[in-house]
Specification:
By secondary structure, this protein is α+β, with helices and mostly antiparallel strands. It is built from five helices and eight strands, in the order αβββαβαββββαα. It has a single domain, classed as archaeoglobus fulgidus dsm 4304 superfamily (archaeoglobus fulgidus dsm 4304 fold, 2-Layer Sandwich). An eight-stranded mixed beta sheet has the order 3-2-1-4-5-8-7-6, with helices on both faces. Helix 3 links the parallel strand 4 and strand 5.
Length: 239
């Protein structure tokens, strides 16, 4: 899969801020994905070695809709020397995403990406950066911050509350009843309503709790409680 090289990645913090400000003006939070057939899911894990060094793993999977059958999955690991600066996380993480996307054979119709999209009038998150370099409808998802959790959010699947952060462009969405909501934001070429609709397609109502919590809090390392039974296939005594 080809991506657009919009700028160099080996830049200073000041240059990154200027690049991000320019890119923010190109984000479009309108449009709908009509009858998408392929859904891309981008997950990222980042190990911060120190302020100026991080190891980033990006995983990109392609699933068929509506069956959610896994068709393709590619992984890339990159070392980043871009400093850990609040608001500029994409300059640490997205190069690994670009490398993983380059390995894909299929091109998704819509992407659900770890990180923020457009959550305010001037905000620009990792998911929006991915949306611009792919020029595909892209949605940002992340676990909500504690201050955003509200008792006003209904427990029924599909209930949502607007997140006000300089503008109403993100929501807390109840995806699984009884579990924490997702923060959903349009990242590029999709509106908020359709972003919520696509997320609900990606996470069906019958998704196991452990699987959903792993999606919501990947760095917590949540796994199922049941151990995998081992079966002895063959044995041989040493000579």
């Amino acid at each position: 899969m080809k991506t657009h090289q919009l700028h160099p990645w080996n830049v200073s913090v000041e240059q990154a801020r200027a690049i991000q400000k320019n890119l923010s003006a190109w984000v479009v939070t309108e449009g709908r994905c009509r009858s998408p057939r392929l859904l891309g899911r981008i997950e990222m894990a980042c190990t911060h070695e120190n302020h100026n060094l991080a190891t980033v793993q990006a995983s990109v999977s392609i699933r068929a809709l509506p069956s959610l059958q896994l068709l393709e999955r590619k992984v890339s690991i990159r070392t980043s020397e871009f400093p850990a600066v609040e608001g500029l996380a994409s300059f640490r993480k997205v190069p690994a995403v670009v490398a993983a996307l380059a390995k894909l054979v299929r091109v998704p119709d819509v992407i659900i990406c770890d990180g923020r999209g457009r959550t305010g009038s001037t905000s620009f998150g990792v998911a929006s950066h991915v949306g611009l370099i792919t020029n595909l409808p892209t949605i940002g998802i992340r676990a909500p911050r504690p201050r955003l959790l509200s008792d006003l959010l209904g427990n029924t699947r599909g209930c949502w509350l607007p997140v006000i952060d300089g503008g109403v462009e993100a929501v807390l969405l109840r995806v699984i009843e009884g579990l924490d909501p997702l923060m959903v934001s349009p990242a590029h070429r999709i509106d908020l309503e359709d972003a919520m609709r696509q997320v609900l397609k990606f996470v069906p109502a019958n998704t196991p709790a452990q699987e959903y919590l792993q999606l919501l809090y990947p760095e917590a390392g949540i796994r199922g409680k049941l151990t995998t039974p081992l079966t002895l296939v063959s044995s041989r005594r040493p000579a």
